[in-house]
Structures are given as C-alpha cells and as structure tokens.
Amino acid sequence: MGVEEEYLLVTPEGRPTAVAPTVLWHAAQEDSAEPTSPDEPGGDLEKEFKREQVETSTHPRTDLGELLDEIRAGRERTSAFARLAGAEIAALGTAPQEVESTVVPDKRAQEIRARFAMTAKDQLTCGCHVHVEVADDEEGVVILDHLRRWTPVLLALSANSPAWQGGHSGYASYRSQVWGRWPTAGPTAPFGDAAGYHRVIEELLATETILDDGMVYFDARLSARYPTVEVRVADVCLDAADAALQAALVRGLAETAVRGDSDLPQPRAELLRAATWRAAHSGLSGNLVRPTTGTPAPAADVVAELVRHVGKALADAGDLEWVQRHVATVLRRGNGAIQQQAWRAEGADDDEVVRRAIARTTAPH
User: Which family does it belong to (predicted)?
Assistant: First the structure.
C-alpha cells in the first residue's frame, strides 16, 4: 500500500502562495544529486494542478508503522523544500481565505483550464489517495465493487475542509463538493468485472467530455500508472497518522473483498451519492448513512461497523490494535474539520487557522 498527499503552499503568515515551480526545482536538485531507482514507484515530489499546491507520495509498504514513518518523512521533506522557496506546507483540504489560484504552466493543465472553465478555476483542493496492490484488473474490480459502499465513511474520517473562499461552507468536507463538479467525479455503480470497468472508461472517452483516462476521477478506480486500486475519496488529513489510518482501512477492505468475506447486496449509485453527500456535510459530527442498511446512525457507530467489517483482515496484517486505538483517538479529538472549528471557537482567524495547520502538518506525533 502507498499514500499520496496534496498540500497547500502558504506563506509563513498563512496565505496561499504560487511557488510550486520553485519548490519543485529545489526538490529536483536534490534528486539529481541522489537519484532513486526508477523501478520503485513513490517517494517523489510532484506538481499538481495549481501552483499553490504540491503532491508527495510514499513508496509501497506492507508494514503500517513504516508507512506512517514515511508519510511523516515526506511531509518534513516537502516542508524543507517549501521553506527554500520562502513558503510552508499546510495539510488542509481547502484554503480558508478568498484566493485566486493559478494553473501550472503545463499544456495539459492549461487545456483543462480552458475547457472546464469555473470548475477548473475553483480547483485549489487537496486530497489523500490510497493505493493498494492488486494481482490484476479482475481482482481490482472485485475490490472496487466491494469497498464502494464504505467510501463515505472514509470521507467522514478524513474531512478537513470546512472553509471556502473566506467563509464557513457549512460542510465538514467542502473539498469533496468542489471536486464533485468534474464530470467523472464521485461514487460509481458496480462494474462487475474488468471488462465492464474498461468498457465504462472507453465509453467515457468516446463522449469526448474528458481529455484522457487521467481525468477518470472516480472515488475509487484502477490506477492508470500502477497495478493498484486507488481510493481517492479522502481529504488530505491534518494529522499524518490519520492518513495511515486511511491506508490501513483501505487495505483491510481490499483483503476482505478478495477473501469474499461479505455478501452484502450492492447499493444503487443514487443512494451511495446521498451517503457521500451526508458524510461530506456532517463528517463525524452527526449521523452517517449505515452502509449495511442504508439508514442513519451516529458517526461513531458507523465507523465502528467499518472496523468490525475489516477486523479479521486487520488482525491478520497486525494492524487491528493500532487501528482500534487510533480510531478512538480520531473520534475523541475529531477529524481536521472539527479541529479547525475548535480553533475558530478559540478566536483564530483564517490566517491563524493556517498557521496552526502548518504546525500540525509536520508534528512528529
């Protein structure tokens, strides 16, 4: 499994700043001095759609503790390069301030900006993507069809974007609402098998609505780059350990799917879309839609149901105790959205929220 994280680039005072090219230049100097193996994916610092953000990734890991260590190291490394450009990084799903973001000087990105207009203009959002290795596309689709009902719970755990363009959005994850404007974003119907999955992609491309298969923005998809399932529903997490929790739960879902440990009926995509909206709206602060019944229940109960669902897989991987302990921590202190709102209650303004997020992004524990 591996984790990709997107971070906001901000000034030390807490304002978004368009310095991604400079940050990436500094990273490239180190990489040229100490080249890594091209055969091993991950570990890179890469551009994103906007110049006010960058993306980092881990190497593939089997041990959860090693993955968490690398997530933290990646944040520290990215922070160091940002400081060389006079900036800091903040693991926030959206910037709280009103900001005019800028598209990177890349031909494909500029074409997306021109074609998708306001949707592209507003896309200064930061997510967390989890990859889990699969044997082949058939196994990957088994996993996709199994975990789709649980993606709203993953979103609720990660929700970290309550503010938008200088105001409170009324959502725990407004990033997911902005991201959902893309034509392929969001939950999907079951694919059935690999042929069914690839047929959907071919039909989407045939509409000429999206540029290429890199614009398949499903909440969970087969990766176009790696032999993995990529779960893309989460906000970037304020705390590094919360990102590791996402990875552990996704791997648990994948293993549970491959074992055939569940025969629950598939929810319709319309119901899954409603459950995803509800998770984005209330996060961990209210009710979620229970994936097994389609009825509302307190968020803590639904999260506990997810942990029970993947409990055997977590135990076999040696992750169960850590996941149970960290889930209890998240439910006690709240996800990023709850923490941001607590800072607001203490009197923090937009810039102060970002400054506190800077400190939390690279906190050692």
Answer: Belongs to the glutamate--cysteine ligase type 2 family. YbdK subfamily.
